[in-house]
Amino acid sequence: EDTLVEQNTHDGLIGARVRRKEDLRLLTGRTQFVDDVALSGMLEAAVLRSPVPHARILSIDASEALEHPGVYAVVTGAEVKAAVSAPQPVIWRMIPDQLIPDGYPLAVDKVRYVGQGVAAVAAKDRATAEDALELIDVEYEELPPVATLEDALAEDAPKLYEDWPSNVSGSTTIPKGDVATAFADADVVVSETFRFARQMGTPLETRGVVATWDPYTDQLDMWLSTQSPNLARDLLGEVLGISVDKIRVRTPDVGGGFGNKFDFYGEEIVAAILSRRTGRSVKLIEDRMESFVANAHSREQKIDVELAATSDGTITGLKATVYAVLGGQLGTVGIGPCWTTAALMTGPYDIANVELSVVGVMTNRSPYGSYRGWGQPKSNFVHERMVELLAQRIGMDAQDVRLKNFVPPDAFPYGSPVFFYDSGRYADCLDLCRKSVEQAGWLERRDKARADGTAVGIGYSFHVEITAFGPSRILNMAGLQHSGFDEEVVRIDSTGRVTVYTGQSAMGQGVQTALAQVAAQSLGVALDDVTVVVGDTDTCPYTGYGTGASRAAAVGGGAVLTAATRLKEKVLRIAGQVLEASPEDLVVEDGRVSVAGAPDKSISMAEIGDASYRRMNGLLPESESPTLEEREVFDPANVAFSYGCTAVLTEVDTETGEVRLLDYLIAHDCGTVINPLIVDGQLHGGAAQAIGGALYEELVYGDDGQIQTTTFMDYLIPTASEIPPFKLEHMATVADHIPGGFKGMGEGGTIGGGAAITHAVEDALSDYGVSITSLPITPPRLLAAMRAGKDN
Ligand code: MCN
């Protein structure tokens, strides 16, 4: 079993390997997803999507579709535009003078990517709606597609937005120190260009919405598969021009979010408008093929990098330009993930002089948005590849280069080019990982395999992970058009049971269990006595960024801990009066408050609950108000940085170029762990997505701008057979500025994997001199790299 190098600072439920409260309902299929919502008289909708990447819409004739039996309404882009008050919001605006095109839920005059919505139909059922789509006649005047980054940047490139000077939406540079001098004085300069394919999160539950616009109350009631019900409500209000008190967003279980479902999409608006038109509930569920074009794509970037160093391996400067291959329209998070790639390019290293640029380039591809890791898998790949390349150049061990350049433990809080890193013991973590690799016998396994003629290699990477976004004011100043704080409500009811109301979403990451653990321990009640309610803007707190950027444990957990601790103080004051003891002399255990050392002098939480709501009968002191409820808004004073070291043992089939992962190890630190079982699962799941990203997944576009991968036959995600066994090691360096010391970790497994796998492959193929500069490492790419390596 895994070793906790340092025990968590809390004993009891925080830190306990508790099985997830969610599992029973999820594993037995008894839960509810959006598609399970069935309302009386409900219609079903379907969206007509553009078959061409770039064209003017000359006309749309929907008359035949409207006459089709069973069809209730058809809307076109122009009609939707007329029905809304504002274009779709872009909430991350880190480039001050960025050109932000007005994006509407359906294309208005022009389509700019294959799959862009053009019209939508509401009908008695989905099949009828799909039949009706075929009756809509759209006349397109096709324009030359801007299919690739190079096409978009070419001097004579056709422009996606004709009134822009070029296809560049904007650019910005993050400076620190004096790069010119660092490069002029460098002993070594290493340059490289890296490319990352388009990839996306592929939740098993596709996106879905059921909208009911009540014609009598003018209320919009929406069931939505989202990671952030509060954000969705706010953005619905903004686009539809209605006040948020008129909108309720409910989110049942989310069958995978992976970042995609943090973003806000046009389909939400379309469903609302169709419901308003028809006076009925409208369900709009994306099918798998649509999901491949209508869900946020991510990852695609080209990055030019130059690194300056002295001959002893000290990195003195880093220059990078991140070309974000954006789509035909900006998604909710705009250039946010690509800006983050630049902002975190120095990773765990203390580099005094940097110049990190990001250039956003529009192409005729699906819009760019969130996917687990949010830009960091690429910054990680770049800094780890550059460390290895530098090590090779100067003949030094890459681990020694890492150790030489790590931000040292006494330098925290450390000011990186953009963020303050709160705490970390990077060298200890690297050491832990290396020792575990040795103990696991990987070195012997590699030697033996090589002696047998098999190409086996070991690779490492070290990652940092930004978690717990905050404080909101600074985020706002940096360009985020939303808050980063979280609000949590903890209530003890009249039966003594506890309910936590949160703005977080349950998308499989175990947040209900983790928050219940924090509340139960803070109050001194049993875990079974705590229920965590998610996903309803009417009953859950009004504010919050929702679930994204690995923040539920740290920001949500921190808020729950504070609220529950305050609530416990009230409980102790009430119990103290009843038991005629001072609150300091009381202990709460398993739902009973008793006087320390005199266990028979006690009162149950149920009796205190009863006295606080119903039969006060002299038990509730006059100084105390009725009810037992606390609300806490937590806006962290700083982000929290988790980190980890990944090691991979891999075998390469030199005939076919197939990479097989034999073993996988992550040493990791996310501050106080609330639930080690969940944290392990999160690392496994995150690593599975890193493996997909490193070896298999690629959204392929042809030069004609057509997407060629719209099924799981073409877009290969790893299955259980491709996932190796995992070994995990934990450290716990607490975040001092977060109550409980929690840091987030939901994305760490995804961030660190790509570089480690790459290094393992290069190590396995050391005879070939392979240098990998793009992901994924598909067999044809690897065979080509092997041939190129041999030629050198
Ligand atoms: N946890 C803990 N102790 C800590 C940190 C985390 O016990 N110190 C546990 C908690 O149960 C927490 C979970 O691990 O809910 C993930 O931690 P956290 O870093 O707080 O991340 P969030 O809960 O905010 O989840 C979001 C994160 C992101 S951004 C994506 S994308 C993602 C992910 O988590 N998508 C997921 N994990 C996913 N897991 C599943 N099954 N499905 C997704 O869609």
UniProtKB/TrEMBL annotation:
Claim: Transit peptide is one of the keywords in the record: no
SMART domains in UniProt: Ald_Xan_dh_C
Family annotation (InterPro entries): Ald_Oxase/Xan_DH_a/b (IPR000674), Ald_Oxase/Xan_DH_a/b_sf (IPR036856), Ald_Oxase/xanthine_DH-like (IPR016208), AldOxase/xan_DH_MoCoBD1 (IPR008274), AldOxase/xan_DH_MoCoBD2 (IPR046867), AldOxase/xan_DH_Mopterin-bd_sf (IPR037165)
Signal peptide stretch: none
Gene3D superfamilies recorded: Aldehyde oxidase/xanthine dehydrogenase, a/b hammerhead, Aldehyde oxidase/xanthine dehydrogenase, molybdopterin binding domain
Domain Aldehyde oxidase/xanthine dehydrogenase a/b hammerhead: 28-144
Keywords: Molybdenum, Oxidoreductase
Superkingdom, taxonomy of origin: Bacteria
One Pfam family of this chain: Ald_Xan_dh_C
Keyword Oxidoreductase: yes
Full protein name: Xanthine dehydrogenase family protein molybdopterin-binding subunit
